[in-house]
TrEMBL record:
Keywords: Coiled coil. Residues 1-76 form the MATH domain. It comes from the Eukaryota. InterPro entries: MATH/TRAF_dom, MCC, TRAF-like. The keyword Cell membrane does not apply. Residues 183-210 form a coiled coil. This is MATH domain-containing protein. The keyword Amino-acid biosynthesis does not apply.
Amino acid sequence: MVVPNPESFPFGWRRQAKFSFTLVNQIPGELSKLRETQHWFDEKNHTLGYDFMIRLYHLNSREFLVNDELKIVAEVDVLEVVGKLDVPVETTEMVDINGFQVLASQVESVNSLFKKHPNFTSNLCLKNLHLRTTYLNILLSLNEILCKSPVKLSNGDLADAYFSLKYVAKAGFKLDWLEKALKEAGETRIQEVEKELNGLTQKRADMDALLVFLKLR
């Protein structure tokens, strides 16, 4: 962990922070690897890290590394401040909705999600509050992508949605409606690609015919 731009802080500044670093076990119900500590940062000591987290050969055996992907969750809480900057401070209000900590700006979206799909968390095995919130944030982004008109989704959007859906579903979320939306969007995109290819094929045929005509003259 590194304090950004420490030279911009006032003389004698100090910050006490609590932070956690979690290697996410991607098998639902299995334990993740958590390291957590508190530390005072100041002018001379503005970095801190872990020398050891987990042995490399344990990553695969403990299902931390799945499809060559490693999921990491980092949380930071500032506990005490000495030497404040002369800048406005923004407060982050968190609201509990059915066991999920969400931002005040997300309340409407999360409530709408539970209203439309009240059982989508019925098979959820995760107990860690931070991990539950992380998965929910991914789900909100995924839902926002797939609520767009299929014609507005790029190939990249569909690829991101596919891998995000696969990742979130592993945690135990029931996402039938998103799977259906992704399938429909994919089929629409395939039809568009086929139309584009047909158009290119026709253009190629026209060019070939033109070349034959020119050679005969």
